[in-house]
Amino acid sequence: MMQLILLSAVISVVAGASCPTGCSCRNRYVDCVGRRHTTMPDFSSLGVASNYDTLDMRDNNLTTLDNTSFVGAPFKTVYLSHNNLADRFISAGAFEGLVDSVKILDLGYNNIQKLPVALKELKMIEELDVSHNPMRFSNSFPADIMRAMGDTITAFTFGNNQLVSWPESLNHFVQLQKLHVDQLGSFMQVLTPEAFHGFETTLLYLKIEKTNLIAVPIGISKLKNLEELHFDDNPQITDKGVLIQSFPTNTDSPKLRIVSLDGDGLTKFPPVLKYLRALNKLSLDRNLLDFLSDASISGNVTAAELSLVNCGLDRIPGALSDLHYLTHLDLSQNDIRTIEHNDLENLPTLEQLVIQNASLEYISNNAFSALHRLDSLDFRQTNLKQVPDALNAMYPCPAKVDLIGNKVDCMCETLVWLAAKTEWCQNHGSPMDITGDCDTIASTVKNYVTKYIPNCPQYKVDNNIAPYNHG
After folding, report:
1. CA dist., res. 285 & res. 301, Å (int)
2. Average pLDDT taken over every residue of the chain
């Protein structure tokens, strides 16, 4: 009888943890995405001992949150973006049930014009996203609400194309580590030097994108511990807007390691780069650098990783030879048709070269002979028709060569050397993995080398195999 009672209790607990109607549950995740919900599901079915900690209500038709919306819902992460929520229909007690649990809240892409008062009650909130809501003015971010969250917020995302004034109440976020500004109104062209006041010593990550700002904000220079800066798709910036005084350069302990200035209307390498002594990773993608001169990089730029994707380049810039620490180079989506023997010879530390989705059709036989650290070559989706003979002059051998998406001619005459090179690499402890497909036969390049090349006459001659044995 006792066993029956215990079994009944177990069944009861399991039944009490059933998934809310109109959702699916797995692991610790309650998935209600795109189910046409107009009201919040009943979460009481999860049970008081539920271990579900993530609720995903994106892409529904929610318009209202009331005092009962989250009863019995102790989630730590809640996604509510892409609904029709308006602040006037979010009650002061709307997040009752989440007050002591929720740490991450996404309210992006709704109809919120002003931060809802209900946010003041969230004692554990760490990350908040209110981007792409029609919040137009500074008073859309009331100081009392921002202050109430200020002791716990570490990540904040805001911005939309209607915002006409910078929210001064950001200065209440004294623990802020990550700030993402996703769009500003078209009339906002300059940010005041005090824009980032309040978190000058705490901010580690800053992303500002899709604005009409005409200069990198001066206030960034005050962010003493900033490690990562993404200032992307701000086409009004141009070369003149990347000001040296806008960057944290006057510091005894530089921290800024990662910088992207993608899609910012640049035509040359910004001079400020040589003053960023901790810079490791740089991206200038989608800038029109086709006029990039060989003298445009000056000073000791410390970047090890450089991305110049879709920059209108028709050759590998000789200016890259001034990047003495370069290990990773991405030149994808450019009109570079050839790699000549001296294009890369002054980059002895290069380890990875990527040229994808490009016009590349010719590589000099000695293009890589001076690059003794080059370990990875990615030539996916180019116009190469041969496995580059330049691989034959590489010592040590590269670990990976990617030719996927190329129409490679696989014939005895063109690939006998590759069989010998592959064998040499294997025997010397540096195996070379070539991926890609043959255009002239239904085979991968790797399979052609191992299966078909041993039957080629020249291979038998080279390896003294009968009946082509001349000994």
Report:
1. 18
2. 91
